[in-house]
Amino acid sequence: MSIIKKYLSRYFITAMSAMAQGLFASLLIGTIFKALGMIPHLGVFAEIGGFAQAVAGPAMAAAIAYSLGCDPLVIFSSAAVGYAANSMGGAGGPLAVFFIAIIAAELGQLVSKKTKVDIIVTPFVTLLVGGLLSVFAAPFIGKLIGYVSYFIGWAATQAPLVTGLAVSVVMGIALTLPISSAAICAGLVLTGSALAEGSSVGLAIAGGAAVAGCCAQMVGFAVISFKDNGVGGLLSQGVGTSMLQMPNIIKKPIIWLPPIIASAVTGPLATCVFSMRMYGAAINSGMGTCGLLGPVGIILGWLDPANGYPDHVGFIDWLGLALICFILPALISYLVYLPMKKTGLIKDGDMKL
Fold first, then answer.
1. Residue 287: is its pLDDT beyond 80?
2. Tens-digit pLDDT profile for residues 186-212
3. For residues 258 and 216, what is the distance between their CA atoms, to the nearest angstrom?
4. Cα–Cα nearest to 192, from 102, 300, 116, 94
5. pLDDT tens figures, 89-125
6. Residue 30 needs a FRET pair 20 to 30 A away by CA distance; which of 120, 145, 229, 230 works?
7. How confident is the model at residue 39 (pLDDT cuts 50, 70, 90)?
């Protein structure tokens, strides 16, 4: 059992978190540069953003190999593996990179520094394994993700209340857990952007619900733990990560209830009342208020004509964004927290970082 836990932690916490960092350093920062490029006379920023977005696959794979403690030649060779897996994976490119880069890096590491011609053997093995898997397995991963994404999109259009609630709660919990909600959203293509293969209005709706759930966790914990952690804790959780509360959640799981309830409320409100939809990069759907990238992703989807946002953006859209991402998570979490605090279910120090 300890061996299983070790590898689950290695791949689904360490490697997945590194994959998200690779996405941040390429696709996400590229999206921000392209947004800056929309400002008159700053078109060069859009070009820079395009370069960054183009290397998302290599960045993810190299980050994964690095996180697994691989030798330099394995890491460098993984860049080509990431490009191949992301290209062949289609809509499921990020998920294809995740699995294929892990296998290629681990097998490449097995032969690394074992021969006198390491400079040839290690890249050869890493790229051979990764290349073959990219050609023969990545398209099937892409099709599988396409089916899952289609189902999510279909469910969001058929039952937006239920889907909004489920996606918001699940993605919010994933954000606080030591796994990457951003990588999951990217893998499931939770965006309606015209730039995303297999996009749909339903996926845009699900992306909006994911933003709501992730914001609820971060803002919720930041507010209800203010007495324990002050301004520093407010900022570190509100614009950093609610994952900081995981040690406290393990000790006392009930402290998780206020943000979860907040996400269960804001998710359906996002889908059914404010029609909050993600037309920015899918990775933004799982970012919450980390660097304000969840709301920023929504806004970029509105502003960039290339993303294909179908409607005029008015006052209600901006109001909904403020309510769903900031005001309601704080208010609902605090209103749930107060009676729990008065009855002793939550005590001072329970959320101390």
1. yes
2. 888 899 987 666 568 899 999 999 999
3. 9
4. 300
5. 987 788 899 999 999 999 999 999 999 999 999 999 9
6. 145
7. confident
For the whole model, what pTM was predicted? Answer: 0.81
DSSP assignment of 181-233 equals: HHHHHHHHT----TTSTT--HHHHHHHHHHHHHHHHHHHHHHHHTHHHHHHHH
Model pLDDT for residues 224-252, shown as the tens digit of each residue: 999 999 999 999 999 988 988 988 998 99
- In the numeric block, the tokens 């370069």 are attached to 51
Chain CA centroid to CA 148, Å: 17
Side-chain half-sphere CA neighbours of 93 within 13 A: 25
Burial letters 207-220, b for 16+ CB under 10 A, else e: bbbbbbbbbbbbbb
Long-range interactions of 153-159: CB distance < 8 A, separation 24+: 153/200, 153/201, 153/202, 153/203, 153/205, 153/206, 154/202, 155/202, 156/201, 156/202, 156/203, 156/205, 156/206, 156/209, 156/271, 157/200, 157/201, 157/202, 157/205
Number of Cβ within a 10 Å radius of residue 310:
10
What is the model's pLDDT at position 197? 61
Residue 286's Cβ-count burial label (10 Å; 0-12, 13-18, 19+) is: buried
The tokens describing 7, both together, are 């590898």
As a whole number of Å, the CA-based R_g of the chain is 21
Contact 248, 352 (CB under 8 A): yes
Mapped onto helix, strand or coil, the DSSP state of residue 163 is: helix
CA gap 143, 301 in Å, rounded:
25
| Centroid of chain to Cα 29 | 14
pLDDT number for residue 199: 64
